[in-house]
Design brief:
Distance between the termini: 94 Å
Largest sheet: 8 strands, mixed
Radius of gyration: 24 Å
Number of strands: 8
Number of helices: 4
Helix content: 25-40%
Shape: elongated
Order of helices and strands: HEHEEHEEEEEH
Length: about 180
């Protein structure tokens, strides 16, 4: 009787295990688009994450124009709700350097950079960091929490979103205009 019980448990376990594997294979074979296909995989060493790190390094070095090749000519570039052209977006970086010295994206902590490849085909690179700089007019060191996200197509940025509180940047701009 014990042997029968063991055999029955083994058969049930095997059937359940097979069903679980089949369900997992089906789930990975067909993307779940019920909510837009926003499940996917994250990778901090993907080509897009590495390009984002390069972009951030060139920004800090005030050589942002060196990474213009990464950006689509007709992309969507935003600072908060302000939409900019590619040229305006590149120019904003040098504008920061005209107002601030010692700009850094990793003085407080290393920047978190990763990319995500979603089931719907979108590839985004995202970064979270604390931006720091010392105002050239006020001498005030500022710290600003920043999140940015870049949507890539064929290794080009086609959408860029930067989210941060601009108050401290605006204060330095105001001081420089007096």
């Amino acid at each position: 009787m014990k042997q029968f019980s063991y055999l029955l448990n083994f058969i049930l376990f095997t059937l359940i295990s097979c069903q679980t594997v089949e369900n997992q294979e089906a789930a990975t074979a067909t993307p779940n688009m019920e909510f837009g296909g926003w499940s996917g995989t994250a990778d901090d060493h993907s080509k897009e994450a590495l390009l984002t790190r390069e972009l951030m390094e060139k920004y800090i070095a005030n050589k942002f124009d060196d990474v213009a090749y990464m950006m689509s000519e007709d992309g969507n570039f935003f600072f908060n709700t302000d939409k900019l052209t590619k040229a305006e977006w590149l120019g904003a970086a040098s504008g920061h350097h005209s107002l601030f010295a010692n700009i850094s994206n990793n003085k407080i902590q290393p920047a978190n950079v990763t990319s995500a490849t979603f089931e719907n085909g979108s590839v985004w690179s995202m970064a979270w960091f604390v931006w720091t700089g010392t105002g050239k007019i006020t001498g005030t060191e500022v710290q600003i929490n920043v999140h940015h996200a870049f949507r890539f197509e064929d290794e080009k940025i086609v959408d860029a979103y930067h989210f941060f509180d601009p108050t401290l940047l605006n204060n330095e701009m105001l001081a420089s205009s007096k």
